[in-house]
């Protein structure tokens, strides 16, 4: 009985974090071809809370919702066309990023150092996928791709990473996190 409750709790967290990632898309500042959103905060938080495997399921749930037509991408958009647009690489980069960031709490006790270290690696993963696709999609040189897809975002994403670690620590202290299986 106890294991089934833990499994249900984890499933609820997976769905909840997918919904948070969706809502993070609506908190957007459109400054160019790729908007600044709150999604990275929730992507990292999902990895810290759920671990790599469950967080990947969370991202698949989020992306699937957008692909079937639910308006969960930035600006309330949906569909395959959004994944083939300038921000598609960043969205697809969420998948490997949570696999990386989920390594932060293998032992269940996420430290500040671990969260920040793995968070930086996850951000790098998102930016690699995003910048490669942005360069390809817009047919611009690397210097222009960095100006359009990295420089305006990196400071904000680092702040979101610190916020995700802080949120995890608060939830852990309050004993609200799902049990690892």
Plain-language structure description:
The chain has about 180 residues and is mainly alpha-helical. The chain has helices at about 1-25, 40-65, 80-85, 90-100, 110-140, 140-150, 155-175. It is globular and about 55 Å long.
In short:
This protein is mainly α and 181 residues long.
What is the topology?
Elements: H1 2-24, H2 39-67, H3 80-83, H4 88-101, H5 112-138, H6 142-149, H7 154-173
Q: Major beta sheet, specifics?
A: none
What is the strand tally? 0
Q: For the CA atoms, what is the radius of gyration?
A: 16 Å
Overall spatial form:
globular
- Overall mean pLDDT stands at 93
Structural class: mainly alpha
Percent helix range: 55-70%
Distance between the termini: 14 Å
Supply database-style keywords:
0% strand; mainly alpha; 7 helices
């Amino acid at each position: 009985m106890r294991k089934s409750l833990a499994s249900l709790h984890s499933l609820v967290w997976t769905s909840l974090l997918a919904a948070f990632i969706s809502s993070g898309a609506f908190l957007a500042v459109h400054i160019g071809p790729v908007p600044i959103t709150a999604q990275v905060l929730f992507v990292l938080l999902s990895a810290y809370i759920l671990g790599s495997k469950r967080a990947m399921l969370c991202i698949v749930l989020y992306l699937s919702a957008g692909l079937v037509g639910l308006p969960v991408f930035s600006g309330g958009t949906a569909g395959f066309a959004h994944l083939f647009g300038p921000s598609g690489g960043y969205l697809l980069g969420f998948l490997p990023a949570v696999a990386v960031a989920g390594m932060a709490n293998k032992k269940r006790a996420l430290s500040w150092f671990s969260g920040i270290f793995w968070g930086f690696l996850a951000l790098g993963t998102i930016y690699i996928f995003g910048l490669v696709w942005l360069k390809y999609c817009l047919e611009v040189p690397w210097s222009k791709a960095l100006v359009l897809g990295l420089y305006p975002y990196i400071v904000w994403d680092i702040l979101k990473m610190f916020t995700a670690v802080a949120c995890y620590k608060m939830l852990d202290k309050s004993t609200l996190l799902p049990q690892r299986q």
